[in-house]
Amino acid sequence: MSYSDQPCLAAKKVDVEPTRGLNKSTGRERVGADVQRERFNEGMAEALSRITCGKDAKQLSTDARRFKLPLDAQRECRRLDQTIPDAEQREASATDETRLPIQRALLAQRKRFIALGC
To answer: Which domain of life is it from (predicted)?
Structure first.
């Protein structure tokens, strides 16, 4: 088994969240600037949730990253946000005969997602 951050045919998605600080044996928590920034953004997202229609910090971060993209790319990213999970569900429930075309389509969608900078 091997792991990659690049999409490949018949890949299984692994959802991994990095740790957010290291607790020493002394009981103190060491938090880096990146974790402090994440916590600040989460607090801002919570405070502004009524204005942002309930979006969480991750969704606001995605919106901010995509803001720099051209409008057509933003639209395609939103479309891929919906079609990739649908394709993943179809792949999971597919039979052996129908799985390969679904996996090829899913691979193309994932590559396009990365190429656009979504």
So the answer is: Bacteria
Same domain? For 53 and 76 the reply is no
Q: Are residues 76 and 116 in the same domain?
A: yes
Backbone CA torsion sign across 28, 34, 38, 39:
positive
Grouping H, G, I as helix, E, B as strand and the rest as coil, residue 30 is strand
The 10s digit of each residue's pLDDT in 51-84 is 888 888 888 888 989 999 999 999 999 999 999 9
Based on the domain organization, do 107 and 74 belong to the same domain? yes
For 95-112, b/e burial (b = at least 16 CB within 10 A) is eeeeeeebbeebbebbeb
Instruction: Indicate the pTM of the whole model.
Output: 0.71
Distance CA 116, CA 6 (A): 14
